[in-house]
Automatic annotation (TrEMBL):
<feature type="compositionally biased region" description="Basic and acidic residues">
    <location>
        <begin position="53"/>
        <end position="70"/>
    </location>
</feature>
<feature type="domain" description="PIH1D1/2/3 CS-like">
    <location>
        <begin position="89"/>
        <end position="183"/>
    </location>
</feature>
<dbReference type="InterPro" id="IPR041442">
    <property type="entry name" value="PIH1D1/2/3_CS-like"/>
</dbReference>
<dbReference type="InterPro" id="IPR026697">
    <property type="entry name" value="DNAAF6"/>
</dbReference>
<dbReference type="GO" id="GO:0045505">
    <property type="term" value="F:dynein intermediate chain binding"/>
</dbReference>
<comment type="similarity">
    <text>Belongs to the PIH1 family.</text>
</comment>
<dbReference type="GO" id="GO:0005737">
    <property type="term" value="C:cytoplasm"/>
</dbReference>
<protein>
    <recommendedName>
        <fullName>PIH1D1/2/3 CS-like domain-containing protein</fullName>
    </recommendedName>
</protein>
<dbReference type="GO" id="GO:0051087">
    <property type="term" value="F:protein-folding chaperone binding"/>
</dbReference>
<feature type="region of interest" description="Disordered">
    <location>
        <begin position="21"/>
        <end position="79"/>
    </location>
</feature>
<dbReference type="Pfam" id="PF18201">
    <property type="entry name" value="PIH1_CS"/>
</dbReference>
<feature type="compositionally biased region" description="Acidic residues">
    <location>
        <begin position="22"/>
        <end position="31"/>
    </location>
</feature>
<dbReference type="InterPro" id="IPR008978">
    <property type="entry name" value="HSP20-like_chaperone"/>
</dbReference>
<dbReference type="GO" id="GO:0030317">
    <property type="term" value="P:flagellated sperm motility"/>
</dbReference>
<dbReference type="GO" id="GO:0070286">
    <property type="term" value="P:axonemal dynein complex assembly"/>
</dbReference>
Amino acid sequence: MDFTFQADQLQALSKLLSCSDRDEEELDEEPCAGSFELNPGQIGPTNRSTPTAKEDFKPEKPSDPKRIWSEDDVPEGSEFEDIWDPRKQPEYEILFKQRVGTEDVFFGMSRKDSSTACCEDMVIKIKLPDCKSTDVSLDIKERFLALRSPDYKLGLHLPHPVDSKNGKARFNTDTQTLEVTLTMKREFDFINFA
């Protein structure tokens, strides 16, 4: 596309967008075309309804008056984040794993395909060179994995919610890799029906 403009077209556009030819009284009454005034009330989501009477407004009563915030206000895994920690972040890889049988592979009896939507497990491989399995501390939440060792630290936000109570961790001493297998929490749909 060609976006070349002639001089008269540019002048007309400039006149349209500028307010210099108006008097100051006109500017006080009406803003320029194409401009608007932004105030603090326009920032953020719009209010659905505002209480009109004192009866309509009911403040939330905290369960414990000494609590400043609830656990829902703090994002999961934020207690493990420390920007001043000098330990290195290890290399890691997230893989997805399916549970398939012969009926899936040879006959195609289930609706599973090779996409991650059909996977049941998440496998996280973390490389920890020069580290022993006894030095590793692992904490798993529904959407966060925290790993600590004397040389490494990893705070990983997981792409899918997992079952934090049931999982397996295996340390391979030959490759010095920690392999964590976690079952994902999936909604039942036409693919994940079992």
